[in-house]
Amino acid sequence: AHGDTKPASSNLPSQVVAQSSSMSFEELDALFGTDRVQEGYDALKKRYDAGEKSIDVLWRLAKFCNEIGNRVEKSKRKDIIVEGKKYAIEAWNTDSNNFLAARWAALMSGKVTEYLGTKEKIEEGKNCKEYLDRAISIQPKEDALLHLRGRWALSVANLSWFERKAAALFYAEPPTATVEEAIADFQAAHAINPDWIENTVYLGKALYEKGDKSAAKPFFDQALKLSPSNDNEKELLAEAKTLFGKC
Question: Is the full-model pTM beyond 0.70?
Answer without folding.
Answer: yes
